[in-house]
Amino acid sequence: MTAERPRHEAADVADGRRGHTPPAGALLVVGDVVTDVVARPRGPLATGTDTVATIRTVPGGAGANVACWAARDDRVEVRLLGRVGTDAAVWHERELVARGVRARLVVDEEAPTATVICLVDADAAAERTFLTDSGASLRLSPDDWSDALLDGVARLHLSGYLLFSEPSRALVTVALAAARARGVPVSLDPASAGFLVELGVDRFLALAEGVDVLLPSRDEACLLTGLPDPADAAAKLSHHVPLVVAKQGVEGALVARSGTVIAHVPAVPATPRDTTGAGDAFTGAFLAALLAGAGAEEAAAEGCRAGASAVERVGGRPPVRG
């Protein structure tokens, strides 16, 4: 299943300045496409009986969410490679196209679409807990890859969830090699501190070899370095990856290069309803701005704005394009 849209006319942006031709090429995101069931109880969970809650079924997945937030920037063409089951393939394709993403969805005849139950706290922070059935999403494999996917691509982004199954880890290796051969820079979002513990830090860093931008959360950065302070963690990670942008939630973002934090970008104030996908929103907006010619700090500011917008909505996606 493939859905395409014409490229937008790009705005004149280069090196972060208006009035110049923008960099040629698209953003290709490879990652998970998920059906999210978002449940927000109206009070504490009552064990063994009913708890009144607001429940919504919405499209999600870290990879798909990143693509949708990136596609909000009309200067950037965004493509997505993902794998879904027959149960929800048409719906997911429609939802991605409606948000401006050129979607190439491999339809799995055996496994259902990945499903995540998001339990959102009833308190003001609206933090969430995930119950994850990865389904078809982690069955993405080298058989689903073609080097032709990189035709016209200026940046490849990989969802960290791909590292948590053998078939999709193999795909990451193939995609990274193809990107290196073409000189296409690659970014990676670690995706899940819980899954990182299972994978192992050394194994993750080995798999991330060759990535030029790493976008961890605070917890992921600290886990990957063993350091309690997120600034120290971001600085240390930037010895492994040229550019590290550590997402700090309500504390904004840290930008680090060559072992030094070079910027602390403040968060944008927001009233959270659901924090699901806030990090994906940051990543998508950051990558789009970077591809359009912004510097890392300016791109991180765009990411913070998108993250603030995301937490004020239910689900991990931006609104459908008007």
Automatic annotation (TrEMBL):
<keyword id="KW-0418">Kinase</keyword>
<feature type="compositionally biased region" description="Basic and acidic residues">
    <location>
        <begin position="1"/>
        <end position="18"/>
    </location>
</feature>
<keyword id="KW-0808">Transferase</keyword>
<dbReference type="GO" id="GO:0016301">
    <property type="term" value="F:kinase activity"/>
</dbReference>
<dbReference type="InterPro" id="IPR011611">
    <property type="entry name" value="PfkB_dom"/>
</dbReference>
<dbReference type="InterPro" id="IPR002173">
    <property type="entry name" value="Carboh/pur_kinase_PfkB_CS"/>
</dbReference>
<dbReference type="Pfam" id="PF00294">
    <property type="entry name" value="PfkB"/>
</dbReference>
<feature type="region of interest" description="Disordered">
    <location>
        <begin position="1"/>
        <end position="23"/>
    </location>
</feature>
<dbReference type="InterPro" id="IPR029056">
    <property type="entry name" value="Ribokinase-like"/>
</dbReference>
<protein>
    <submittedName>
        <fullName>Sugar kinase</fullName>
    </submittedName>
</protein>
<feature type="domain" description="Carbohydrate kinase PfkB">
    <location>
        <begin position="27"/>
        <end position="319"/>
    </location>
</feature>
